[in-house]
Amino acid sequence: MLLVPALVSAIGTLGAIALPVAGAHADTVAQLPVTGFTQIVADTAHHHLFLGSLDAVVVTDLAGAEVTTLDAGEGVAGITLSPDGSTLYVALTAEDAVSAVSTATLTQTALYQLGSGNAPSWVAVQNGTLWVSYRNGTSGDSSIGSFDTGAADAAFVPQALSGPRWSAPPSLSADPDDSGMLVAADGSGSPITIATYNVAASSSPLAQSSNFADCLTFQDAAVTPGGAQVVLACAGDANHYRYDTASLTQEGDYASGIYPDAIAIAPDGSVAAGTGNENASAIYVYRPDGTTPVNTYQFTGSLPRLAPRGLAWSADGTQLFAVIQQASIMTVTNTYYLHIIQYPALTATAVGLFGPSTAVIGSSVTLAGYLNLGANAAPAGIPVTITRTLAGSSTSTQFGVTTASDGSITLTDTPAAWGNYTYTAHYAGDATYAPATYSLTVTITPLQATLTVATGGTAFNYDSTIHVTAHLGTTDTNRTVSVYAQPFGSATKSLLKTGTVDSNGNLAVSYVAPHSTTFSAVFTGDAQYASRTVAQAVGVRARVALTISGYYASKLISGTTYRIYHRTAHLGTGVTVTPNKHGECLKLEIQEYYQGAWHVKMITGCGHLNSSSKGSWALTISQAHLNSPYRIRADYIRSSADTSNLSSDSGWQYFLVEK
């Protein structure tokens, strides 16, 4: 078997399907405009692909783009090209007929009627005759009939070929070189029923079996150019087996893994053997009668599989068309994709690359890998290019390495910047060996810079000038810091200053703060250090202004001004809180001085600030001690819903009560 390591790069993706390719120059993927699929026929001379899709034939160009639809709603079954490629024949089960379509004009040129109750299933052209397998109207009984397409008025010849009893219309496969070899296989039972014919010489089978134990679950068949062999794809086997058409003797196999479901043979005899296992769907390309695949194509992803009868070669053998069905676990429908593989006659290769998933900036990254040429490790001295690409960058760096005697490769690299790096190993190939590619991602993590923001305190008076200092520690090249202010309760962050820090790593800015504010310093990072943001929150007190009235005189005592009241007067107060705190709580507090200290005499309940953020009281002082020092202040108590300013007090106002 060809050595294809498990780690193979994905070349080309669509949806969840990926096609790692060993030995192909290019692979194109396109979603096909079909909801069901039965068979693919390639007409590269007219640049068309014909796709059987249950009730129509969908025609696309060679890239999978829709061109037109043929015989929509007619119950399409098998389709085939005439050996000269001029006509497409379509079995119309709902019409009991076969349509002949010009491949040049994509228009119907003839309609061959089988007669009522004779529903055709599969068609093939050989020796100037159109062969049709069909249900003949008797339950559990089918036959093979024919039309002489060269006749002016071709009449249907029922049961034109003898042989085994067909429980269902057998699949028909013919020699592309038109030697007369025709193979019929009925997979409705297990084991299958099979027969081979040389229709150029006889209507009787060359070989037949009604209990062909070599094939339990028939999927596809193809006759080799010249007609000497037929290759079967049988889902119950682990290989595609080839048989002598004259005797149905097994003559070898093409190893392909479990669930063979498609087979296509190129004009030069190259064999594409496909498997439809959901976990390991693949295509293996062999030389005629070869024992080791020269190319392997592995499908991966979520439930992809090669569709039964989903392979076709171009006429010159340079392109392989593969239909992949993507099953949905949520619905019963499938999505179909066309893979177009540019096939060279090259020996498959594989390259691998391994290394750490992460590394810290400044440390070296050591990668190890291998190169296999065919089934063997590459000899010493074979060049492999490793390209390093940083995500988000349009530039890349290339390294050239060569294989050691065991095919291994190594690279030690020290990236200069942090980020996600993709290392891609590429072997260019030569006239014998196909190119190969594999990619590995390594995340280089950055260093963390020291960044602080200081405000000189955590609480300030209303409209104070706050001096903010951002400090940046060691970095690589970026010495720029930005300082922002965001008042509590606001979604807006204002830029105060952006600049280069000084020789001590500092950037200073002043800010007059009417509200509690969060200050943040931002460093955007550089090649070695990650971006970083730090923050410092400060509270700003509301401003509370208190005035008193009703006094009749003033007196200076020990440098403090006292307002003098008669005990029969009222002490009037007026309070303003800034910024506006409408509806929030305001209290008055009165203290008396005795025994060498101030003592609280009264604290009022909450009075609510009006819409102008003001409040007033008239206090009775008739019970005050005469000539004893008193003082009064206003206390703003913020509500639980207001975080924009801290609670605060006014300054003290002093007074005496005299007789």
The total strand number stands at: 59
* SS field, number of helical segments: 0
| Estimated share of beta-strand residues | over 45%
CATH C-level category of the largest domain: Mainly Beta
CATH superfamily of the largest domain: YVTN repeat-like/Quinoprotein amine dehydrogenase
Count of individual domains: 4
Helix content class: under 10%
Termini separation comes to 120 Å
Tell me what you see in this structure.
By secondary structure, this protein is mainly beta. Helix content is 0%, strand content 54%. It folds into 4 domains: 19-342, 7 Propeller (Methylamine Dehydrogenase, Chain H), CATH 2.130.10; 349-445, Immunoglobulins (Immunoglobulin-like, Sandwich); 451-540, SOR catalytic domain (Immunoglobulin-like), CATH 2.60.40; 543-658, Immunoglobulin-like. Strands 50, 51, 53, 54, 55, 57, 58 and 59 form an 8-stranded mixed β-sheet that branches. It has a 5-stranded antiparallel β-sheet with strand order 3-27-26-25-24, with no helix packed on it. It is elongated, with a radius of gyration of 45 Å.
